[in-house]
Target: Glyoxylate/hydroxypyruvate reductase B
Amino acid sequence: MERVFVTRNLPGPALGELRRAGYQVDVWPEFTAPPREALLERVRGAAGLITMLEDRADAELMDAAGPQLKVIAQYSVGLDNVDLEAARKRGIVVTHTPGVLTDATADLAFALLAAAARRVVEGHDYVRRGEWKTWHPELLLGPELHCATVGVVGFGRIGQAFARRARGFEMKVLYASRHPKPEAEAALDAERVELDELLARADFVSLHTPLTPETHRLMNAERLARMKEGAVLVNTARGKVVDTGALLDALEHGPLFAAGLDVTDPEPLPADHPLLRHPRVVVTPHIGSAGMRTRRRMAEMVTHDLRAVLEGRAPKHAAVLP
Ligand SMILES: NC(=O)C1=CN([C@@H]2O[C@H](COP(=O)(O)OP(=O)(O)OC[C@H]3O[C@@H](n4cnc5c(N)ncnc54)[C@H](O)[C@@H]3O)[C@@H](O)[C@H]2O)C=CC1
Ligand SMILES: O=C(O)C(=O)CO
Model:
């Protein structure tokens, strides 16, 4: 019986189905990720791994698993925690979950934009503190969403889905992308511009690139300083795409009005982190894809692809096919 190690429990029936199909499914029982030593120990002898954020799937892990390891099925679309080259060299297939989580993540990005701009969390805290004494024309003013200009950085699946939501609010869409996207441009009446121009013109900037050496700290002090006065930054990509210290500085002394962050650096963000003391920073704990239906479908995708590899068929969502 082939063994599969799963680094956290998954919602829905997918793991039960994998067991019924004859696999020995070993699930890490805790809510937090396995510590490194435990991870290296538990992967030993596995033919397949289901990994996710916080699991460093590198050469050391692959070698600790052993030569029978055929597939790493990553329970996310982002693959920045997986060493794809190491997998390729060892003949290990890597799969992931593109597409299925696009709408859930775009929904959350838009929710963060609305919450940060219109001060939803700040307003809630204000009421909870018992400070709501009267209606006042100057209470908690924020920038308008409708008819604003939004800048989308990384115009792939989630970036375009976010832009579709922005169009529903009659926003003008600018995008920065390595390659032109003429079809999406036409459908969304979007304008491709250089990143610096986007930062100078957009009222709201939403980040949707993968984390790569090129996008690491893409939003550094210099770029944050180029943003429009009163702008709002939304990050549902990866925390390391933004320089956290520079972000705080841009909020306190620079042009930024507010930020909505689903991903942070560091991540998880400690409760005493200075970002959480800023009244106009809204943080969610990396829940972009956490729609109930989405997370079940992600579980189906990883288990179906994992079985495909172990049973000699082609997986549908391969990032590495040696
Ligand atoms: N917060 C969350 O829970 C989630 C976060 N994500 C993050 O969102 C990312 C994007 O996901 P998808 O849209 O599905 O990927 P995608 O591959 O469809 O889109 C990414 C786009 O970014 C572009 N890009 C890459 N480097 C760039 C650069 N330097 N400048 C401008 N554009 C650049 C790519 O060409 C591509 O068009 C994932 O890699 C992941 O890190 C994804 C899902 C959930
Ligand atoms: O899919 C991803 O990349 C995530 O961050 C979690 O769904």
Remarks:
- The CA atoms of residues 101 and 203 lie 26 Å apart.
